[in-house]
Design a protein that fits this description.
It is a single chain. The chain has helices at 6-16, 20-29, 34-43, 45-52, 83-86, 89-105, 115-125, 163-176, 188-199, 209-227, 242-248, 272-281, and strands at residues 59-66, 72-80, 130-138, 141-146, 152-160, 233-234, 237-241, 251-260. It is elongated and about 85 Å long. The protein has twelve helices and eight strands. Helix 1 (6-16) packs across helix 2 and helix 4 (45-52) crosses helix 7.
């Protein structure tokens, strides 16, 4: 078997964008023939992408695409395994392409979009890439806001008002994270869960049932006010609520959506040092 120099591994990495260990193994399998190694990597690209697909992708970006008439927009989340990969130009271009294609088709089914491009990107970056979810919002006026790190974004639909107002409310949504638009929108299951939490608090112990109910009523109202968009103090001016902000501008909020990268994804804790050691040993 031909000796594999560090310079040869470096050249293959630069030409393919793949990891050091993968390049070294490919060169060993082809006795140091770099062109043959590249050919084998190309043949195995689908297999490599499939192997990566089992790894948790909980980092990534959120992307917004809006219609020219501001009557609709799409919010898309595309995941990677690490924050480092999420900053890769190729990954960002892929995420924007997913949003473009989904919005053009008016579809929120993004899981299988541009799969050939995804597999090529998986091989190049060396991480699992996963278009996760999308939502389209429509209305008289729809505008969005993406936080500077591309990890949190929101869309807001208004009846009346203007784009600046919609963007301000979307910014508020990214910062404060309301659960619902109106207090009446809160699911009954969430209310029951909150009531159970309140009943279990130490200051409820030993109190008569009627007192517990009265105290719980006040705390549920507080919970609804804190978690309903229209009842929240505007983040840029806490002296007014979002409802008042919209009303003064002659607008009504008809809907919103907020995405935060990785929200709801369970990430398995791993020993990074042990993982690296195992790869080097292999």
């Amino acid at each position: 078997m031909a000796a594999i120099s560090a310079a040869l591994v470096k050249e293959l990495r630069e030409r393919t964008g793949l990891g050091m260990m993968e390049c070294k193994k490919a060169l060993q399998a082809t006795n140091g023939d770099i062109d043959a190694a590249i050919e084998e990597m190309r043949k195995n690209s689908g297999l490599k992408a499939a192997k990566k697909a089992g790894r948790t992708a909980a980092e990534g970006v959120v992307v917004i695409k809006a219609a020219a008439d501001n009557a609709s927009a799409i919010l898309v989340e595309v995941n990677s395994e690490t924050d480092f990969a999420a900053k890769n130009d190729g990954f960002l271009a892929f995420a924007n392409s997913i949003a473009d294609v989904a919005f053009e088709a008016k579809s929120t089914e993004v899981a299988g979009l541009l799969d050939a491009e995804r597999e090529a990107l998986v091989q190049k970056i060396g991480e699992n890439i996963s278009p996760r979810r999308a939502e389209i919002l429509e209305g008289e006026l729809v505008a969005g806001y993406v936080h500077s790190n591309n990890r949190i974004a929101a869309l807001v639909a208004l009846k009346g008002g203007n784009a600046e107002l919609a963007k301000d409310i979307a910014m508020h949504v990214t910062a404060v994270n309301p659960r619902v638009l109106q207090p009446s929108d809160m699911p009954e299951s969430e209310l029951e869960k909150e009531k159970d939490i309140i009943k279990a608090q130490p200051d409820m112990e030993g109190k008569p049932a009627e007192i517990v109910e009265k105290m719980m009523g006040g705390r549920i109202q507080k919970f609804l006010k804190e978690n309903s968009l229209v009842e929240q103090p505007f983040v840029k001016n806490p002296e007014i609520t979002i409802a008042k902000l919209a009303k003064e501008a002659g607008a009504e909020i008809v809907g919103f959506v907020r995405y935060e990268v990785g929200d709801g994804i369970e990430v398995e804790e791993t020993d990074f040092a042990a993982e690296v050691a195992a790869q080097l040993k292999g």
